[in-house]
Design goal:
Elements (H helix, E strand, L loop, with lengths): L1 E3 L9 H11 L4 H5 L50 E6 L4 E2 L10 E4 L3 E4 L7 E7 L7 E11 L7 E9 L14 E10 L5 E6 L6 E2 L15 E10 L6 E11 L9 E12 L16 E5 L24 E9 L5 E7 L10 E3 L5 E8 L5 E6 L7 E11 L9
Antiparallel strand pairs: 1-4, 2-13, 3-6, 4-5, 5-13, 6-12, 7-10, 7-11, 7-13, 8-9, 8-12, 14-21, 15-20, 16-19, 16-21, 17-18, 17-20
Length: about 400
């Protein structure tokens, strides 16, 4: 191991994490640090670049596991519902260098995780990292990744808000300004015998980059956040920091609008295929609720390349509807899957006709649409092909 007391060149440790976890199915110091960082083909990451852990990199039973494309509903009305994540690897942390912590140093394990060096002084080695997020973001939750094999000592994690509380004093030089440090969230590991993923409070609602109420008139945001991790020096190598993940949301524009994503036609439903749910003819005054998430072939088998082809973020879909084998006159209406009624038909047909039409429809939260059989005498088979979907613009996951 090498000893460092200044910031080491940042590495994007996440890809190493994924390889190790896929093979071992566990999280820990060895999992995060597997592989030789000097020979890895993982490219260097710019300082502060966020890393989004894939779902495969987190235990299946971890309730905080959030994939890069998963949406979580929030009660907030002014923030986009998408939960973005920024992962700060161990190499993004520095030891404090003030009087209380002078002389503290750390060891990097294969470039991915760090432990306290035996030469450190005092009770704890305090590591810190800036939380660099878009201005006005809302921090939702903080999660610590590492190892605690110490019976007697725990690792402490803090989210701090630093806020200016006075005006800028130009004289005497150098210029000064008063500020306060407020603990927003505080949690610690417990004696777990090794690998730990520990989260703080959920739904913090902590704003970043918001103007302070302390009266400092500046043209830029003056509210900042840092993460502090205290590793107990007496625990030595039993305390390991591998990284910290920040979950956050960004403010939704006043009119978020939607973006259309065209698709090659995807067969989402064919009532002629007996193996599909809701198969069979659609008769007068009948309804069928159809899941339009995936695509199927002519035998009813799921097409792997069309799995989740309509994402959970979709608010509406563009579709083609085809009527086949009609035995009398009628019509079909199409609505969101949770609609209680319809107001207009999507297609009209007569006996013996095979007709098609194209339109768009809102999608229910569970990604379903509903087919309504009209009140005339005819019944028919119905085929639905999805040709695109609408979804809100996805905000950038890059920090500022």
């Amino acid at each position: 191991m090498k000893k460092f007391n200044t910031r080491r060149t940042r590495r994007l440790a996440g890809a190493t994490v994924a390889v190790a976890l896929a093979a071992t199915g566990v999280i820990g110091a060895s999992s995060f640090a597997s592989g030789d960082d000097n020979t890895s083909d993982v490219p260097d990451a710019p300082p502060g670049e966020p890393f989004v852990p894939d779902e495969s990199e987190l235990p299946a039973d971890d309730p905080s596991a959030i994939g890069s494309d998963e949406l979580i509903q929030t009660s907030g009305t002014t923030f986009d519902e998408t939960i973005l994540t920024k992962y700060i690897p161990a190499s993004g942390f520095d030891p404090y260098t003030d009087v209380a912590f002078n002389g503290d140093s750390i060891n990097f394990d294969s470039g991915s995780c760090l432990t306290v060096d035996t030469a450190s002084v005092g009770a704890v080695t305090r590591m810190w990292a800036p939380v660099e997020l878009p201005d006005g973001a809302r921090i939702k939750r903080v999660t610590f990744f590492g190892e605690d094999s110490s019976v007697a000592d725990n690792i402490t994690v803090r989210l701090l808000r630093q806020e200016f509380t006075s005006g800028l004093a130009i004289f005497p030089l150098p210029p000064t300004v008063s500020r306060t440090n407020t603990v927003v969230d505080l949690f610690s590991t417990s004696t777990s015998g090794g690998d730990v993923i520990v989260s703080g409070a959920d739904g913090l609602g902590e704003l970043t980059g918001s103007p302070s109420s302390g009266g400092l008139a500046l043209s830029f945001p003056n509210r900042f956040h840092t993460i502090e991790v205290d590793l107990d020096n007496s625990a030595d190598a039993d305390h390991t920091l591998c990284g910290v993940r920040i979950e956050y949301q960004v403010a939704a524009p006043a009119d978020a609008g939607t973006v259309f994503h065209p698709l090659d036609p995807v067969r989402a439903f064919d009532s002629r295929i007996a193996s599909l749910p809701q198969s069979g003819r659609l008769g007068p005054n009948q309804t069928k609720v159809i899941d339009i998430t995936d695509g199927y072939d002519s035998t009813g088998a799921a097409v792997p390349a069309q799995d989740n082809v309509v994402p959970t973020s979709a608010t509406a879909v563009a579709y083609n509807i085809t009527i086949a084998g009609a035995d009398g006159p009628n019509f079909v209406a199409v609505t969101a899957g949770d609609a209680a009624a319809f107001t207009a038909s999507a297609i009209n047909y007569s006996a013996g006709s095979n007709v098609a039409n194209g339109s768009s429809v809102t999608v229910a939260a569970d990604q379903t649409i509903k087919l309504w059989g009209g009140d005339n005498t005819g019944s028919s088979h119905v085929i639905i092909d999805i040709v695109g979907y609408y979804s809100p613009p996805v905000p950038s996951n890059m920090g500022n």
